[in-house]
Fold this protein.
Amino acid sequence: MIPELGHFALILALALALIQAIFPLLSRRAAFGQLFFVLFAFVCLAYAFIINDFSVAYVAENSNTLLPLPYRIGAVWGAHEGSLLLWITILALWTGAVAFFRNQQIPEEFRARVLSVLGIISSGFLLFLLITSNPFQRLLPNSPGEGVDLNPLLQDPGLVGHPPMLYMGYVGFSVAFAFAIAALWNGKMNSTWARWARPWTLSAWCFLTLGITLGSWWAYRELGWGGWWFWDPVENASLLPWLSGTALIHSLIVTEKRDAFKSWTALLAIITFSLSLIGTFLVRSGVLISVHAFANDPARGAFLLQLLAFVIGGSLLIYTVRAPLLKSEAYFKLISRETFLLTNNVLLMSIMATVLLGTLYPLILDALDLGKISVGPPYFNMVFVPLMAPLLLFMGIGPACYWYEIDHKILLKQILYPFVLALVLSASLILFITNMLPILVWLGLFLAFWIIFSTVISACTQNKMLVRRKWGMLLAHTGIAVCVIGITLVTHYQIARDVRMQPGDHVTVGAYDFQFLGVNDLQGPNYTGADGRFLITKNNAPVNLLHAQKRIYTSDQVTMTESAIDVGLTRDLYIALGDPVDTNAWGVRIYEKPFVRFIWWGGLLMVLGGLLAIGKNRKL
Amino acid sequence: MKPTYLLRYFLPLITFLILIAFLWRGLYLDPRKLPSALINKPAPAFALPTLINPKIIFTKNDLLGHWSLLHVWATWCLTCQEEQPFLMDLARDRSIPIYAIDYKDDANTAKQWLHDHGNPYQLIGFDVHGDTGINWGVYGTPETFLIDKNGEIRYKVTGALTPEIWQTKILPMIKNLS
């Protein structure tokens, strides 16, 4: 009964979404109505999981009576149909928020148009869900007594956080998109739309940053070989809107403050959400190979692609027709904050384009019958670093500039000290600790220190008052610097050992001694396996006793490696149990990963900075 | 308005339309299908002890002088069981000699399997570590190679060898190239 109610609620939601799209006077109320019914449907699906209703096909495919409750709820978004419902629910939440918040003094006519655009997107996705991917499909009359189980890779706390956060970001950019379309449609586009769009765009950006950070952290813990970014097509699908979104939030600042870059900002808003949509398509269509991809089905892919063509093609058409009317009148000199922000955006979009090209290249070659290749980390790392380095360099200069123009002598004086200080400090630190100075490590540390020093100095010297937004920029830029430190140090200084160990054996990795104590049988709620115990000591003082496990999940006999991690400020110690060798010995992978945590703390700092920048420009 | 002025605004839309065209095409391609790099090339040389009698060595020379099928299988491969009846038919009809490589398997289990399911093969090479399989570009089981009289690989079937594939792809190829 409940699943049918959920199904019916979705149909009602579709009707309301269409009303929201077509009738501007009713759009606010229709938006609230749509939100209610979509939430209702989502709760119905969650309920089916909680009570183990295996007559619903989606529950039977993704859950199991032995699955712990938190993961049963997480399983709601574990596969295609449910995650699509989550996508729609989050879109309805953002739409409801736009309908609800009246304190921005947005004219009702404009707001109605924004809601109308959002309604079109909702309708499209609800139609897609109902026609091709109904999560409430029943398996009657012979419903299974037991479900297949959730993919063990997804049975991790990271599952609870990562997709919802990611979707909040992905989908959140639809608001900026709708603002841009509404403004373009209006034709009179002054820069106030940028002021209205800013808090929405920043919130979406914060969620996306958090989602990507969580995903990287989750992969590190779950996948068993200590990697934190693989340039997998689905990972790239989340990075592309992030890169474009970062360009967008910076472009919005210029449009709001200087009435410049108007058509660029509108285009960026359209591109960012379009990249979110294309990412959603890539994950579900079977067009690219990825460990992340949902089950592929060309029929679904075809529907989704047509939806995309309509939404993105339509919005780009509107842009093409209306953008010539948006010539900006502001001028600025060569050395000015505007120039650096423009350069920043050009670099970000270039990085976005190269990542997009690399992700789609196998498909392009295959479609042109030029062969089958795969594009992986070697390509991405090779193009990413040379484009990132100048970006990081300019990140330190831009905030030091004034709007419109800054005298180059004044600028040089501002940036000279942090430049030299960063150069010298990074070199000294590396030489002092390792007696060597690898160029790439020096470059990474120098750029990170440079950003931190120059940002701090420019914030302190420019304004007597440190307002919230300045703090936001400080924290967010520092977050990037921290992330760069983490990436540089872990990439160059990590130590990996792949050894065969018997109980009692010792292995030395870095300054630490790892002793294998033996393996016990393991019994979990829905798995069995082996639990390997390892004692870590440093200079004979105990550091930690870790349990690295190999789990075999009962329902589908899939083997998972649960790595053991000793978390530290300056390093992680990472142990993964491999396969049993002979009767008594095991293959063991041990890593020392210096400063790897900085990668995710940097991400968190970025989120914090973004959050601070959302509010009004008051003192902290 | 000057044409170059307009072009700048059309660029995003045009780029997107090209992208859509590729994505549309991509829906009907299978990225997982990997064609063999060995088609129309000489089969790699090998020397494997046979499963039944390890003293007899199965080499590429055994494949020369006639069309043959080389079938890569294992007892742990479920699809191979589905394929087995058709292979037995082929062997009974003497349509084409079938040779095999037993890939990454256990010898005793394999012999028992053949005892239970029948043995359609002329010779079975026992590739316990998969080294020969690597040379042939094997990345899963079952895989079947069509080899001509001169020892060149003419076709590769990834997955089960079905009567359809035999009728529509392999038989015509043998007829055309004989």
Q: What stands out?
A: Chain A has a mean pLDDT of 89. Chain A has 17 helices and nine strands.
